Amino acid sequence: MLLKLILFGVIFYAVYKLMGGKLPEIGGKKKDTIPKGEDKKKIEEDTLVECEKCGTYVTYKESIIIKGKVYCSKECAGL
């Protein structure tokens, strides 16, 4: 009896670790929420945006924004 209980515990622990150490949420919050703080900043810098003039994709960090429009370079922005 004790051996079965120990074996069940070991199997449960192995499954728990395979799932990343987190138990599944049943009817809980969805993870599609807007990140806050540093995570939001990282996503904004790594997000690809399309140039208004030529259609080239560049990262948000490297883009040039003039009057709410996104450009990939000074040539496309007309500077």
Architecture overview:
The chain has about 80 residues and is an alpha+beta fold. The protein contains three helices and four strands; from the N terminus they run H-H-E-E-E-E-H. Strand 1 (about 50) and strand 2 (about 55-60) form a beta hairpin.
List keywords for this structure.
Wheat Germ Agglutinin (Isolectin 2), domain 1, two-stranded antiparallel sheet, 4 strands, 38% helix, alpha+beta, 79 residues
How is the topology of this model organized?
Elements: H1 2-18, H2 38-46, E1 48-50, E2 57-59, E3 64-66, E4 69-71, H3 74-77
Antiparallel strand pairs: 1-2, 3-4
In a nutshell, what does this entry contain?
The protein is 38% helix and 15% strand.
Count of β-strands: 4
Q: Gyration radius, to the nearest Å?
A: 24 Å
Strand order of the largest sheet: 1-2
- The secondary-structure element order is HHEEEEH
Architecture per CATH nomenclature, i.e. the level-2 architecture of the domain at 38-79: 2-Layer Sandwich
Q: Report, as a whole number of angstroms, the end-to-end distance.
A: 79 Å
> How much helicity do the residues have?
25-40%
Average predicted confidence as pLDDT? 79
Q: Tell me the name of the CATH class of the domain at 38-79.
A: Alpha Beta
Shape descriptor reads rod-shaped
The largest sheet is: 2 strands, antiparallel
Low-pLDDT segments, ≥5 res: none
Fraction of residues in β-strands: 15-25%
Number of continuous helical runs: 3
SS class: alpha+beta
CATH topology of the domain at 38-79: Wheat Germ Agglutinin (Isolectin 2), domain 1
